[in-house]
Design a protein that fits this description.
Blueprint: H1 2-15, H2 27-35, E1 40-47, E2 50-51, H3 60-70, E3 73-79, H4 83-93, H5 97-105, E4 111-115, E5 118-128, E6 141-150, E7 154-160, H6 167-174, H7 177-180, H8 184-217, H9 231-248, H10 252-260, H11 268-333, H12 349-370
Parallel strand pairs: 3-7
Antiparallel strand pairs: 1-2, 1-3, 4-5, 5-6, 6-7
């Protein structure tokens, strides 16, 4: 029995993956990948552009065994895995610890990094939140993240957030075997294109919200000075645009690299398609920058209108104070109780004073109204 234990101890290390290698077949790795089943959304092997059917749900370990034996590549999708759930897959595919940490903890900036024979790409997904009316607390956009590990014969997606499911994208891509036969880089391009198309849709929806606010600020110029709209609504919309901008702007450089710089893990035919994605992204970037500048102008115009409206109120208050000052002054003089005051005991003194007060008030009112103060 001791000889058997010694032989088993000598054989098992040879099956284990050495640190930094791309693959491993250790029993520990297999157990860990089985533990990741709760986070795995889908796991499949693709060969010659078609999904290899299986009579059961493949584990990442089983998928890689098939790939090594028969060729093709494995596509594994995960949703918000924990560190423990992802550690086995990371060991199985030789993923870099820094990239693994970013994928697990999320809240990353869009980027493209290369670790040995693996490309690590981070995309920010944007979802437009429908709302009946924009308020100072309305959520206009909701963000999520998709991290992609692109290898020679595997593709791993780690998704964070409640939206941005890739199921429909996977089905659509499976309907195009010619494109899928290009390997993992075809999946990377499809996801990039899907994310940027989402940006375009969100930009169009936000344009409607900005147009509505702009129309309210500058509406009805012939009905007097507008008091503007709630500045909190404009500021909230500006914050949502800023969040949108944080998702779009950092992605420009990675898309340019994927479309211009030759990479071993990106098929040359696929690289041409990244140019189209980069062009669409540049268009969204211009829209977002325009939104930010336009909202600045709208906010300044709204504040200026509020200031003008306040000045208008002050002019009206001042005008009425000037009118009221006439009877106040006259009544104040004749209320001083002196014995010897002009016309104090004259029969027509009271109606004459009332007439003078009325005439003076009417004259002041007409003058102020003619000058636009009332």
């Amino acid at each position: 029995m001791s000889m058997i234990r010694d032989l088993r101890a000598a054989v098992r290390p040879s099956l284990r993956k050495e640190p930094g290698t791309g693959y491993g077949t250790s029993y520990d790795t297999y157990d860990a990948t089985r533990e990741a089943a709760s986070a795995v959304v889908d796991c499949a092997v693709y060969r010659e552009g078609r999904r290899v059917e299986s009579d059961h749900c493949l584990t990442p370990h089983e998928a890689m065994l098939q790939v090594r034996r028969d060729g093709g590549f494995a596509w594994i999708g995960l949703h918000e895995p924990t560190e423990a759930e992802f550690s086995g897959i990371a060991a199985e595919f030789g993923l870099h610890p820094l990239a693994v940490e970013d994928a697990v903890h999320a809240h990353q900036r869009p980027k493209l990094e290369r670790y040995d024979d693996t490309l690590f790409t981070v995309f920010k997904t944007i979802h437009y939140v429908e709302h009946a009316e924009l308020t100072a607390t309305s959520e206009v956009v909701e963000t999520g993240e998709v991290m992609c590990f692109t290898g020679r014969d595997f593709f791993i997606t780690v998704r964070h957030g409640g939206h941005g499911s890739l199921r429909s994208l996977r089905r659509r891509l499976q309907e195009d075997p010619e494109l899928l036969a290009k390997g993992p880089s075809s999946v990377l391009h499809t996801i990039a294109d899907h994310v940027v198309d989402g940006y375009l849709a969100v930009a169009d929806a936000m344009q409607v919200d900005i147009d509505d606010v702009e129309n309210e600020v500058f509406a009805a110029p012939g009905k007097g000075v507008s008091r503007g709209v709630d500045a909190g609504r404009i500021y909230q919309l500006k914050r949502e645009v800023l969040e949108f901008k944080r998702a779009v702007s950092p992605l420009l450089r990675p898309m340019q690299l994927l479309s211009e710089r030759p990479m071993r893990l990106v098929d040359p035919d696929i690289q041409k398609y990244f140019r189209d994605v980069a062009d669409h992204l540049a268009r969204v970037q211009e829209q977002v920058v325009g939104f930010d500048e336009l909202l600045n102008s709208i906010l300044q115009a709204n504040l200026a209108q509020a200031a003008v409206a306040q000045n208008e109120d002050m002019r009206k208050i001042t005008s009425w104070a000037a009118i009221i000052a006439v009877p106040t002054a006259v009544c104040g003089v004749y209320g001083m109780n002196f014995d010897h005051m002009p016309e104090l005991h004259w029969r027509f003194g009271y109606p004459l004073v009332l007439g003078l007060i009325g005439t003076a008030c009417y004259t002041i009112h007409r003058t102020l109204k003619r000058n636009g103060w009332l």
